[in-house]
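A reminder from the course coordinator: this example appears on the midterm review sheet, so study it carefully.

Given structure:
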């Protein structure tokens, strides 16, 4: 299966369970791997035959900007739903890093895989 990636999409949002996390926006880094068949697009060179990853990115940014999730797991699930809303995508792998969440660690992260 072919893949399209959105890599290192940096955003700030309210996320977390602790009072200080509910007050101050935090950095998150989102990676989305979308599995789909790209043969038709490769032959036609036509956007209509592939995944419009710019529109998916915009939908993700809108979700994150308006969100108030407590868990990065919940945010990842919603991002996977956005990706899988495109019928061409058969599987989505979403990774969300939360830099600075743990002392002495570069980040904490969650990765989920969802299939159609």
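Designed residues:
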């Amino acid at each position: 299966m072919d893949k399209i990636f959105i890599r290192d999409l940096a955003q700030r949002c309210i996320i977390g369970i602790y009072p200080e996390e509910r007050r101050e926006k935090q950095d998150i880094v989102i990676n989305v791997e979308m599995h789909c068949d790209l043969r038709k697009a490769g032959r036609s060179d036509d956007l209509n035959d592939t995944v419009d990853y710019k529109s998916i990115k915009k939908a993700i940014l809108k979700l994150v900007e308006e969100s108030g999730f407590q868990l990065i797991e919940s945010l990842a699930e919603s991002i996977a739903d956005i990706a899988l809303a495109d019928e061409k995508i058969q599987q989505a792998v979403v990774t969300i890093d939360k830099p600075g969440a743990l002392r002495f660690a570069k980040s904490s992260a969650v990765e989920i895989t969802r299939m159609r």
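Residues 2-115 form a domain with the GTP Cyclohydrolase I, domain 2 fold (CATH 3.30.1130.10). The mean pLDDT is 96.
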